[in-house]
Amino acid sequence: MARNPPHCLLLVSYLLKIASSKIQIIMCRLLVITIVITILSFRTASSKGRVKYLPGFHGPLPFYLEIGYVGVGENEDVQLFYYFIRSESNPNTDPLMLWFTGGPGCSSISSLLYEIGPIKFETVDYNGNIPTIILTPNSWTKMASIIFLDIPVGTGFSYARTTRASYSNEIQLSDHAYEFMKKWFESHTEFLSNLFYVGGDSYSGLSVPIISQLISDGNDVGNEPYINLKGYILGNPLTFPEETNYQIRFANGMGLISDELYELLFHTCGGEYRSEYVSPDNIACLRNLELYEKCIDGIELANILESYCGGRIWLTKQPTHKFLSEHQPLSSSLCRILGYELVYNWLNEDIVQEALHIRKGTIKEWIRCNDDLNFTKVVFDVRPYHLNMSNKGYRSLIYSVIEQWRSWKLNGQIAGYTKSHSNMMTFVTVKGGGHTAPEYKPEECFVMFKRWISNQTL
């Protein structure tokens, strides 16, 4: 698992042999103790290993899965956990991507198992046994190697060795991610020449552009190693605070509220629909916002076309197992959040954590989305980062925005709409996609990614 300092055991043996007096023996023993402590510290700071078998999957994994920890921050007191899957096509030449899940505080294995990875759970109600894991035909790892990173500290299996190291924000998160990549490349030098992308969805819309710019700026000033950054990918990303005001227009366009209520909201609120920014004296606006909330009550906000299964669980980050213990949703065939319960039970099994080489005692309980992070939000608008990266010629794929664009097709059918700009930015919608589009429309998103990453026209 660990990379020990070279020839350390030979050095220890040599020191003991040359000790011919009590003073020499004492000094050598102290030096031996120092070396052992150094070795143990090295092992804790960074470790990796291949996983060939996973509980719940029949037989050996047909793809290369590596897990590991990389120490970052002061004294490497932040230990970041990652899952790395090599491209199933040609890992020597296929692109490499660093992927983040939203939150903040949602584990990257959510993206691996539910969105863009090569495996998923068989959709059945949990019965107390190890869930069955099956292959998925639409994994993005068919044409790219992907690192799924648990970040910020306190997410998934990532942890802090000190209380001070447990605190984070968007800037520290980005610094840690950049440091992670530089250290990861030190032990994976064979990937340095591969085209490199940063990707993520939801809340990661704030951190991905920042991280991308950090890497770009580091390359500009000659930081080592040089990272072959080519662009970034974002799904339904959080970008700036005022964008939530578009929810009202979307609700009206989808028939969730009447034209009459939409007009009332527009005229009484003046386009500002965030209740915390509405004057308490504007009674008419606040009353109409209450009517709007009643209209969408009972709508599954993650995907309005699906059955209602608790509404805002994906927004609140409430642990799924706690939510399910307090509610009685429909069967797993209608409510996908029951699938989230499977990963909670699976990753808290000792046999699974042993297979993933999780360090014992580093976390009390694995939680899909950790709502108890020591995380302070300090960045709210990343449009300047998008502008900077665009001006520097980096590519970007952003699948979320709605406009009157040309259609793109799959098997002769409209799969969504797209618009490309001369500044290398490509915007795409996925017809029928939810908050995390690959989870709801895996084949369409697979084709979208394949075409874009290969520089094909959508």
TrEMBL record:
Pfam families: Peptidase_S10
Protein's name in the database: Uncharacterized protein
An annotated Gene Ontology molecular function: acyltransferase activity, transferring groups other than amino-acyl groups
Family affiliation: Belongs to the peptidase S10 family.
Top-level taxon of the source organism: Eukaryota
GO biological process, any: proteolysis
InterPro entries recorded: AB_hydrolase_fold (IPR029058), Peptidase_S10 (IPR001563)
